Write the structure tokens for this entry.
Amino acid sequence: MRNQEQSENAYDVVVVGGGAAGLAAALILGRSRRSVLVVDAGEPRNAPAAHMHGYPSRDGMAPAAFLAEVRREVAAYGVELVRDKVTAAEPDGSGAFDVALAGGGRVHARRLVVATGLVDELPDLPGVAERWGNDVIHCPYCHGWEVRDQAIGVLYAKASGIHQALLFGQLSDDVTLFLDGADEDGLPDSDWQLLAAAGVSVVSGKVDGLVVTDDALTGVRLAGGRVFPRSVFVVAPRMVAQDTLLTALGARTKETPAGPFAEVDPTGLTSVPGVWAVGNAAGPAEQVVNAASAGYRAGVTINVDLLHADLDRATERRRSGVFSPEGERAVARARAAGV
Ligand SMILES: Cc1cc2nc3c(=O)[nH]c(=O)nc-3n(C[C@H](O)[C@H](O)[C@H](O)COP(=O)(O)OP(=O)(O)OC[C@H]3O[C@@H](n4cnc5c(N)ncnc54)[C@H](O)[C@@H]3O)c2cc1C
């Protein structure tokens, strides 16, 4: 419900990004009768995958169908949704924000939710980008069950080390770690012991690319041409926060193993008053269910924040008007009596 004092392009909350995180915040704010605009560029991170797993009651649903369903739920509470991209968000000097859209529009927001997700930067190997989300995967919890017992190749990455090889070793007895030219002697003895215990084979040559036959991964090719038959290839993308709006606003970041992400409190509030960051925009580990949970929590917190801001303003108005304690009590008694 639009506050009477608000103009056509002014909202209680503008949510930037309409993935699970942003839509969950919008859902709870819409249900709280807040005026909300969701601006979404429409490129959720898991779009390349045909199925979404690990979300109770929605396990196996197509990501696009899941988001379409949440958009329908959110719209039913009066939340406005537009397909556009926010290019800038600036403080307006009164604690609120002017928000610019790529399509040329400008809107005003009392509070901002940045739910812009992250970008997976893939290893630069022929075939990897083309097969991403299909038979080139990264996450055992998202896709592991579906590739159980298959011939799985894992690309060694310095940042994650042998971790993925061990995790996928729990799902298949046929896992090969491709060191991709990394120095064998660089792996500590403890890593070799774990790999042996997990039954993971190790191949040391430089990986040249993937072999695809009839639209299916069939092998991993090393420099020199030798091909190892594999039907699944696991990579560790570099996860880069889509945080340009946050950094332009001056939000502090914290270091994570994946690089810098916004520093937020348990409700998602950033170091900039009035700006929340949720989902993968605030952390690389968030899966869909955690992203939705973070959006929900931020939505509740923002509603309470706005409630107190509204009550403070109403109190201030009364003080500067015809306020008297007797008058206030009479108004409250009349309200209670339903007058
Ligand atoms: C291949 C793959 C498969 C996955 N499978 C699973 C799975 O099975 N289960 C699971 O739980 N997780 C899975 N994940 C992780 C999942 O994708 C993320 O956890 C989830 O998408 C995070 O939700 P989010 O709302 O934070 O971000 P996103 O879903 O990425 O949504 C962010 C949205 O913000 C938009 N946006 C960005 N910048 C702007 C801007 N400036 N203005 C307007 N809009 C903007 C984007 O276009 C996008 O629509 C998978 C990830 C990948 C890569």
The chain has a mean pLDDT of 93. The two ends are 24 Å apart (CA to CA).
